[in-house]
Amino acid sequence: MYIAQAFKYHYGFWRYIIGIIIVAIGLTLGQIPWTFAVFMEEGFNMFAMPQTELMTSLESNFSLFLLLLSYGVGLAALFFAVKYLHQQPILALTTSRKRVDWKRVIFSFLITAILIVGGILIGYLLEPENFQWNFNLVPFLILLVIAVIFIPIQTSFEEYLFRGYLMQGIGTLVKNKWVPLLVTSLIFGGLHIANPEVATYGYFIMASYIGIGLLLGIITLMDEGMELALGFHAANNLFIALLLTSENTAFQTHSVFKDISTPELLGWEVFIELLVVYPVVLGIFAKKYGWTNWKNKLFGKVEKPETLKLSEEP
């Protein structure tokens, strides 16, 4: 139902290609302020600097604000494409329900916040030598304001693009659910390949990025809407930004703690994330919202509603 409702609007795949171009232009324009600020700081040397150094060229709160700003421009560009290119209401891109279920967003946000805070607390208790107290009141309060306002915009952009726009676009093209689930997850993970974490820990960490893409895609398909995915993604990025940073992360922040452990990837941590944490999240949501018919919702066909008129073709 969630993917199939895109058939009610202009769903020709060529429109999605143009839409992605519009979004790419929006993101590029949105990154101009950050690029200009770095250029003013580093000059032409910036073109020879590795990404890890570029990310620390500016004061971290200022850099974070400018980087997150680009996602706001990207989200506006995406909504523009959906409204004027597809003539589709944003509600139909968000959910198959008659209105956005904010209780779902809040529930998912709280569950994820508990998992993130709990995970960091357990890590601190088990290996306190890997954590450095990094709290500084004024910079942290500035970070708090920036993060609370702009990180949900960043995560919403990614959800609307991958679990919304591309999920529906690919789904209406191939007429099934598993292909858009897999493709959007691979693209979502692949776009993180330039992150400093990959250079530090190796390509095995890509399993984590692809895994979270699969989790959010499964949640969206099973729940027939993005509300749970929106809440999960926002809480995940927000609490990590506020509580823990390191020299090897994409976002350098004035967080409460700094990870000073030796940069090596422990495979068991990724396996716990993929094989324990994510299944627990799915189990909680499945129990809470009574999910059934998993096979059809994840692998079934996407059928065009018979009630559509010829005038509603692409």
Automatic annotation (TrEMBL):
Its EC number is 3.4.-.-. Pfam families: Rce1-like. It is an enzyme of class 3 (hydrolase). InterPro entries: Rce1/LyrA-like_dom (IPR003675). GO terms for molecular function: hydrolase activity. Residues 140-239 form the CAAX prenyl protease 2/Lysostaphin resistance protein A-like domain. The keyword Ribonucleoprotein does not apply. The chain crosses the membrane at residues 12-40, 60-85, 105-126, 138-157, 178-195, 201-221, 228-245, 265-286. Coiled coil: none annotated. Keywords: Hydrolase, Membrane, Transmembrane, Transmembrane helix. This is CPBP family intramembrane glutamic endopeptidase. It comes from Autumnicola edwardsiae. The lineage of its organism: Bacteria, Pseudomonadati, Bacteroidota, Flavobacteriia, Flavobacteriales.
